[in-house]
């Protein structure tokens, strides 16, 4: 079989790999780089695409297959959330004045092409999905074909979070011939989640004591529901003192309703709660004008490059009483949020904004860190491992550490391997 890397090699974004056997050809993920839009460089002569999870850097390019016969395989939650995210992608491009050549009926076609089963037989190939942690509905993909087996992790984590269990390695097949593993944090060890949450609450409390606004940009899907629930519980239990608290994002509001209805896709910690995402202290707002300051605001876009978070970032970044908390690990270098983390002044349409607010990165991530990645390899014992979804530095740091555990390779985009 041939394994070809089309995107997400030595980088984060645009993940896609194809596997070609004597019987057919499938893609594992079909992603875009959100800042670059749809792409024409991914193969379309496919029998199926297996989508690990709904993030657009793994699923966004499915729109380009809307008129094809290609089947999409992935979990039911991924199908439903992908539909929401693709609709939003169309809207974002329309609002920016560069509409995509697709419409809601194309999203519907993608949805109808979906085989939402955890086990699918294709000609000469067996595909099985396994929970991956990371976000609601995320799966790893195990493939058996031509006497070989391949495990593709997609994005994953081993640690449990407040609303989702980590990947259960005991359920996964061991000693695959080939494993393709993410390496976002291949060179990074993170403090425990408890420590990070304590750190988050401490930063918020400090800003509250200064009477400042707190801005937490985040992603509409999963990270938003997790963050709002966390803050809501802290306000309700007294871990945080009472404050005006809001979340803004129409998309997140829709996805939150889905989370309330489908707790079966989430962790054991929310199963007994009849409405785990109905909040007591954090209100949903439709417009930024409705914010009563000082306030704690959780909003999209996650990278602060658009929408409410961009606007509030420029409104609040020059006030020294304010705080901006970046909860994502990866922030694109060109985003204003990244600018606020690294520079004294940021610019918007020629206007300069001095960075006086406290800007802190507290990575409450759904990715495995270096320790988890090594532990995962130790438990799965793959013969050969390809590291993807990490910049070259992260992947190479991990490669060095994995040394004798498995044969490791860090591929480049466009490279092909025969197994
Ligand atoms: Zn992801």
In short:
The chain is α/β, with parallel strands linked by helices. Helices cover 29% and strands 23% of the residues.
List the helices and strands and how they pair.
Layout lengths: L1 E6 L8 E5 L4 E4 L19 E3 L5 H4 L11 E3 L2 H20 L8 H9 L1 E2 L3 E4 L2 E7 L7 E7 L2 E5 L25 E5 L10 H17 L4 E4 L5 H15 L6 E5 L1 H12 L6 H4 L11 E3 L9 E5 L7 H10 L6 E4 L9 H7 L2 E4 L2 E4 L3 E4 L8 H11 L3 E5 L3 H11 L4 E3 L6 E3 L1
Parallel strand pairs: 3-4, 4-5, 5-6, 10-11, 11-20, 12-15, 12-16, 13-14, 13-15, 16-19, 20-21
Antiparallel strand pairs: 1-2, 1-22, 2-3, 7-8, 8-9, 9-10, 17-18
Helix pairs in contact: 2-3
Bound molecules: zinc ion.
What does this structure look like?
The protein is built from 11 helices and 22 strands. A hairpin with a 2-residue loop joins strand 9 and strand 10. The protein is an alpha/beta fold. It folds into 2 domains: 240 residues, Metallo-beta-lactamase, Chain A (4-Layer Sandwich); 169 residues, 3-Layer(aba) Sandwich (Rossmann fold), CATH 3.40.50.10890. The N and C termini lie close together (5 Å). Zinc ion binds next to loops. The site of zinc ion has 4 residues, from loops.
Number of domains: 2
* CATH class annotation of the largest domain: Alpha Beta
How much helical structure, as a percent, in the residues? 25-40%
Architecture per CATH nomenclature, i.e. the level-2 architecture of the largest domain: 4-Layer Sandwich
Spatial strand sequence of the major β-sheet:
6-5-4-3-2-1-22
The assembly state of the depicted protein chains is single chain
Largest β sheet strand count, sense and barrel closure: 7 strands, mixed
Structural class label: alpha/beta
Low-pLDDT sequence parts = none
């Amino acid at each position: 079989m041939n394994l070809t890397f089309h995107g997400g090699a030595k980088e984060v974004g645009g993940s896609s790999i194809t596997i070609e056997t004597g019987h057919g050809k499938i893609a594992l993920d079909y992603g875009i780089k959100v800042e670059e839009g749809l792409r024409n460089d991914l193969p379309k002569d496919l029998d199926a695409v297996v989508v690990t999870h709904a993030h657009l850097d793994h699923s966004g390019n499915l729109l380009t297959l809307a008129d094809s016969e290609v089947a999409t395989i992935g979990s039911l939650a991924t199908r439903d959330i992908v539909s929401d995210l693709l609709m939003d992608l169309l809207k974002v491009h329309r609002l920016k004045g560069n509409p995509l050549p697709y419409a809601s009926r194309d999203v519907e076609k993608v949805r109808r092409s979906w085989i939402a089963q955890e086990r699918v037989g294709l000609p000469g190939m067996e595909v099985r999905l396994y929970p991956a942690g990371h976000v609601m509905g995320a799966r790893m993909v195990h493939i058996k074909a031509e006497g070989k087996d391949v495990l593709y992790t997609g994005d994953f984590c081993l640690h449990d979070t407040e609303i989702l269990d980590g990947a259960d390695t005991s359920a996964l097949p061991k000693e695959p011939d080939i494993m393709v593993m993410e390496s976002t944090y291949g060179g990074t060890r993170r403090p425990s989640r408890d420590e990070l949450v304590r750190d988050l609450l401490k930063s918020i409390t400090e800003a509250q004591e200064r009477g400042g606004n707190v801005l937490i940009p985040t992603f509409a899907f999963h990270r938003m529901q997790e963050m709002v629930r966390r803050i809501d519980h802290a306000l309700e239990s007294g871990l945080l003192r009472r404050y005006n608290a809001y979340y803004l994002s129409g998309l997140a509001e829709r996805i939150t309703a889905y989370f309330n209805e489908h707790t079966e896709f989430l962790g054991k910690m929310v199963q007994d709660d009849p409405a785990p995402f109905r909040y007591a202290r954090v209100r949903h707002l439709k417009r930024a004008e409705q914010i009563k300051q000082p306030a704690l605001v959780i909003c999209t876009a996650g990278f602060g490059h658009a929408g409410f978070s961009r606007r509030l970032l420029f409104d609040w970044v020059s006030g020294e009483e304010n705080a901006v908390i970046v909860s994502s690990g990866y922030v694109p270098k060109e985003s204003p949020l990244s600018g606020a983390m690294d520079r004294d002044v940021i610019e918007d349409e020629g206007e300069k904004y001095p960075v006086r607010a406290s800007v802190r990165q507290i990575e409450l991530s759904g990715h495995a860190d270096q320790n988890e990645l090594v532990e995962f390899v130790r438990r799965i014992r793959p013969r050969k491992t390809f590291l993807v979804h990490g910049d070259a530095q992260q992947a190479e740091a991990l490669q060095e550490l994995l040394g004798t555990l498995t044969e490791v390779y860090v591929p480049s985009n466009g490279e092909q391997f025969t197994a």
